[in-house]
Design brief:
Layout: H1 3-6, E1 14-17, H2 23-34, E2 38-43, H3 46-58, E3 63-67, H4 73-86, E4 92-95, H5 110-138, E5 141-146, H6 159-179, E6 184-191, H7 205-213, H8 223-234, E7 245-248, H9 252-255
Parallel strand pairs: 1-2, 1-4, 2-3, 4-5, 5-6, 6-7
Helix pairs in contact: 2-8, 4-5, 5-6
């Protein structure tokens, strides 16, 4: 293999992907496995995880499933024990699990606020802290948080979601600064709208037209569009990159 391409090889690495039962998380898990990583796929939906596990194993990589509700710190602590029991280490963490509603700010309820924040921000932080502690022991690791173009731009109905994702990008910078001395690189990927099963009801009609009108490349993102970024940020090729939010957005932010 070309020596430059070797730097993208994830053979021998262990990755954990949250929210991996479908959509972006599933694509990330499959992409990392395709680059050579063994993967622990996490979600609340065990049956879906079994399907992802089977797909990963077709690539010849090892896969394990773990039922995880990131809103529960006890679940995240159990994940740490599971990682040690099954692999003895972790090299890569992809924080993909999230929950959102598309509502005007006037209409967001307290329960919806709490679930969005607990899943997409609080849960992400404690996954970083708990799983990252294993990386700290080895003095090496890669954490990738899922941000969004809405961290730096506005559309109606996405105020809380955008605020959370802005927080994710800022937290990514803060953790990268604090944990650099522990050998942990922390970065974020910020996609534009991605057509996934959970977004099919949202991304249609007038809302879809408004989104497409703001993407210079003229289409939505796909899960596959994000895999290259994930492999890069997981691999030795990005060892001198930390605290960054990489926008995979078809030019959305440039056009804004």
């Amino acid at each position: 293999m070309n020596k430059y391409l070797e730097r993208f090889d994830l053979t021998g690495r262990v990755a954990v992907v949250t929210g991996a039962s479908e959509g972006i998380g599933q694509e990330m898990a499959l992409g990392l496995a395709g680059a050579g990583a063994d993967v622990i796929v996490c979600s609340r939906r065990e049956e879906k995880l079994k399907e992802v596990k089977a797909e990963i194993e077709k690539t010849g990589r090892r896969a394990e499933t773990f039922r995880l509700d990131v809103c529960k710190l006890s679940d995240i602590e159990r994940l740490k024990g599971f990682i040690l029991d099954r692999f003895g280490k972790v090299d890569i963490l992809v924080n993909n699990a999230a929950f959102t509603v598309n509502k005007l700010a006037w209409d967001v309820t307290e329960d919806e606020w709490n679930l969005m924040v607990d899943t997409s921000f609080r849960g992400l932080f404690f996954c970083c802290q708990v799983v990252g502690s294993l990386m700290r022991e080895k003095r090496y690791g890669k954490i990738i948080n899922l941000s969004s173009t809405f961290s730096r731009s506005i559309v109606k109905g996405r105020s809380v979601y955008g605020g959370i994702k802005a927080g994710v990008s800022h937290l990514t910078e803060a953790l990268a600064f604090e944990w650099a001395s522990d050998g942990i690189r922390v970065n974020a990927i910020a996609p534009t709208a991605v057509m996934t099963p959970s977004r099919q009801d949202l991304l249609k009609g007038e809302f879809l037209e408004r989104i497409l009108s703001r993407i210079p490349l003229g289409r939505l993102a796909t899960g596959e569009d994000l895999i290259g970024a994930a492999i890069y940020l997981s691999s030795p090729a990005s060892d001198f990159v930390t605290g960054q939010t990489l926008f995979v957005d078809g030019g959305w932010i440039a056009g804004s």
